[in-house]
Structures are given as structure tokens and as C-alpha cells.
Amino acid sequence: MARNASPPPLLVAGIVKINPPTPQLLTPAKPPSPYIWLTMQQTILIIDDERAIRNILSEILTTEGFLTDTAADGAEGVKKVKENNYDCILCDIKMPKVDGMEVLAVARAEKPETPFIVISGHGNIETAVDAVKKGAFDYISKPPDLNRLLITIRNAMDKKLLVTETKQLRKRIARGAEMIGESEGMMRIKETIAKVAPTDARILITGENGVGKELVARRIHELSHRSSGPLVEVNCAAIPSELIESELFGHEKGSFTSAIKQRIGKFEQASGGTLFLDEIGDMSLDAQAKMLRALQEGKITRVGGEKEIKVDVRIVAATNKNLLEEVEAKKFRLDLYHRLSVILIQVPPLNARREDIPTLIGHFLKDICEEYKQPIKEIEPEATLALQNYNWTGNIRELRNVVERLVILSDKAITRKDVDQYIIMK
Question: Whole-model pTM above 0.85?
Fold first, then answer.
């Protein structure tokens, strides 16, 4: 199929102006948009038994800033899918040796995260639906509309990026929720968690700031039968007392001056999962009374509303205060304390589990160096010993901050001199 040479695209202020495509192969949008944003270089595999289609698609996508690779039939396409990693795959349906649906099956099995776009001039609605059901991102008829093709590719890559970022985030969250340490206190906590997590018992976690109470709560949720449900965290100390009720139970539109629309509270958001109430000791007495009712009846009422809403929530609470002392000072309800403290977990301060410090340092070094995309730094034994003997008033949180500071400011390895110089920045 003959093609006339097209003039080069124009680059204006970071925007590529695309020249009209060859009409025999691509149908331009009506009206065509001449401006397409430049993309980062990503690789697209084009599988089609028609050379002219491969060439024109490759030319257009190259102009768009993509790298392209091509395969002349399904068999070659399958081979390349298995051997290489692509950001997107464009594939014809009707091809010799191996058809597009077979290539799709291989791609979904070998590279499930890579978006697969079917392009065919022989398909119909049934074929399109079948392709999407089997994992194709989209189905485009030949001759493809240029703008639709580019938008589809961009959307497919956006979805892939989102999936990748979500997996990385989940991995980081899971890594961040690891409970590091083999000291007697930590082993006791792990054993308790293993026993109580599968139940719906309410749990009260106590300990100083920075000891990792939130990690205990996350671990309880992960090991519970509610792990597929949400884990909703509320910092009771960070919410003004006049807003805590709305935050927890929600409100109806017009229930107070700034209530311009209905709000779903944390109890409803956490239904079917776990509600983690951090710093519960800072909750106002009024909010405590309504919290007690919600725990007793399993129902809540939004601020300004009359309807009772049933919620299925497991409560895990945490505090750095001695709640029994708060009860004596009439700052915390005794009946709420007993409701929350079916299981008590006391997290020890870091100074009480110094034998875990070397393990924690190694964990933080690996985590921080990966975050900064640099090789894991070595730490000299004398430096580790100095950190082990330091007075950690800020507990785990302070230790991690110090390790991060040492990673940034030290040279090839972390030395005792680095610790002495950087452990306290003046």
C-alpha cells in the first residue's frame, strides 16, 4: 500500500502538532485535534500481519514520543511478549499461525499488568465483548481513529501506572507495619495478637508516644477475618472536641452552620472492617458518652439526623495516657474504659527492649536506602553499640529519624563518629 511522505511534526511550547494521518489507514477524528501532549518514552509492541499497518502505527507512535517494537504475526508476537517487557501491546485479531485472542491469553498469563489493546477490521460487537472479558483493555476497529487510539493508549498506560503504584504502596504499607524484634516483650505482644486478632474482641493498646501502637493495630487488622474490609484510623487528639462527633458519626446537611452537605462518619466508613481510635484518652466526655452508646447497641445516629444506622465495626483503641488515672480525674468514663479494654496490650518503650535495636537499625537502613534509591549503607559495630546505649525518649519514631539522618549525612559507611556528630542536630 503506497504512502506519501508526510511533513515533519511541529513542536510548539512542549506540544507536538500531529500532521493528518494517511487516510487509507487511519480515520482522523472530526474535528481532528492537532495538539497532543508529549509523553515519557514508553515502549509499545505492535502485532499485525499487515506491514503497512505496522509501519504507519509505528511512525505515528514514534512521533508521539513512544518507542515501538513490531511483530509480523501472532507467533512472533507471543515470543516477544514472553521475552520482553512492554508498556502496552496493540494486536490484530486475524493473523496466521497464532491469532490475536491466543496472543491475548499468553499476554494475560505472562504479563498480566501490561495493557492489551485489540485492533481489528474483522471484528464485531461479540468479538469486542469477548476480548474485553478475556482481559483486553479495549477494542478498536480498523481503520482506527487516531485521536481515539492515542487516548486509549494513554488511558491504558495511566491504569498500568496506577496499578503499579498501588502495589508499591501496599508493599510499603505492609513493610511499614512489620513488627520488628525478638525481645521478650515483643514476643509476648506477637503471641497475644495471634490469639486475639481472629476474634472481634475490642482491644486497648497503651504505651508511650512513638512505640508503634498503630503498627500493633494494623497487625491485628491484617490477621483478622476483617482484613478484606477497611482499616479506618482516627486521631482523636487532632480533631477539635466540637467536631469529633461529626467526624465519628457523620452529619446531615444543614445540621449546623457549615454542614453544607451530608457527611459519612468514620463508623460508617469502617463498617465491615476495623476502626482504630488513636489517642482515645483525648476524646471529650460528650463524645465518650455517644461512643459508649454506639459500642453497646452497634448503631449510630448522624448529627442532625433521627435515623439509627446499624454498623458492623471492630474497635481497636490506643492511648499514651493512663486511663484509670484519667477516670479518677473525671476526664474519662469508667464504663467506656471497661468497654474498650476487653484485651489490654502494653507496648514497651524502646529503652526497655534495647536488644531489638540492632535488628531495627538493619530494617530501617534497608527501608530508607530503598526509598532513596541508593545501595544499603554499612554501619560499624561501634556505631550500632552507641545507638543501642542511647536514651531513646522518642522511641521507635526517634530511632528511625536518626537512622534516616545518618543515611543522608554519612559517607560510605556509618561510623561511631557519625553517630556522635549527627544523633542530635544542634
Answer: no
Dihedral sign for Cα 410, 416, 422, 423, please: positive
Do 59 and 17 share a structural domain?
yes
pLDDT average per 10 residues of sequence, the chain (426 residues): 41 36 40 38 89 90 90 92 92 88 91 89 76 88 84 88 71 64 94 96 96 94 93 91 87 82 91 95 90 90 89 95 96 96 96 96 93 92 95 95 95 93 72
Residue 7, preceding peptide bond in cis (omega within 30° of 0): no
Q: Is the peptide bond before 143 cis (omega within 30 degrees of 0)?
A: yes
Rg of the chain over Cα atoms, rounded to whole angstroms, equals 30
Q: Report pLDDT digits (tens) over 214-258.
A: 999 999 999 999 999 999 999 998 888 778 888 999 988 888 877
Task: Mark whether 220 and 340 lie in a shared domain.
Answer: yes
Please tell me the predicted confidence (pLDDT) of residue 36: 36
Length of the chain: 426
Range of the domain at 407: 351-422
**How far apart are the C-alpha atoms of 77 and 387, rounded to whole Å?**
56
Distance CA 412, CA 401 (A): 19
Q: What is the 3-state secondary structure (H, E, C) of 286-325?
A: HHHHHHHHHHHHCEECCECCCCCEECCCEEEEEECCCHHH
3 Cβ neighbours under 8 A, 6+ residues apart: 22, 25, 52, 55, 56
Q: What is the pLDDT of residues 344-376, one digit of tens each?
A: 999 999 999 999 999 999 999 998 998 898 999
How far does CA 343 lie from the centroid of its chain?
Answer: 30
Cell of 92: 490484530
- CATH number for the domain spanning 363: value is 1.10.8.60
- Do 333 and 374 fall within a single domain? no
